[in-house]
Design a protein that fits this description.
Shape: globular
Strand content: 35-45%
Number of helices: 2
Strand order of the largest sheet: 2-5-1-6
Helix content: 25-40%
Radius of gyration: 14 Å
């Protein structure tokens, strides 16, 4: 098991600022965010149109396995509180720095 994790967080765009606050609360100040993405998934389509309004955001961050576990626990609580409308999906992948 890797000691470093890359977190990949997908959310409805309107929840992005709250989720960035979670990362900053755990001192994960290094992240990449992609806004205004479109796609389809288990919660329906988000295509930025009148028929399929909304968009999604994607956040990447790297943290120690211990910090990643703390962050994902808080994100689980957030997802439970918000329900499916948050469109929150969180993935933790082993991350080995190559360069």
């Amino acid at each position: 098991m890797s000691e470093t994790k890359m977190l990949m967080i997908v959310c409805a765009e309107e929840h992005l600022e709250q989720l960035l606050g979670v990362l900053e609360g755990h001192h994960l100040e290094g992240f990449t965010e992609l806004r205004g993405l479109q796609g389809a998934g288990v919660h329906g389509r988000r295509l930025g149109t009148r028929a399929f309004p909304g968009s999604v955001s994607l956040i990447f961050s790297v943290a120690s396995a211990a910090v990643a576990e703390q962050v994902t626990a808080e994100l689980r609580r957030y997802a439970e509180a918000c329900g499916p409308e948050a469109g929150l999906h969180v993935y933790a992948l082993d991350a080995d720095r190559i360069v």
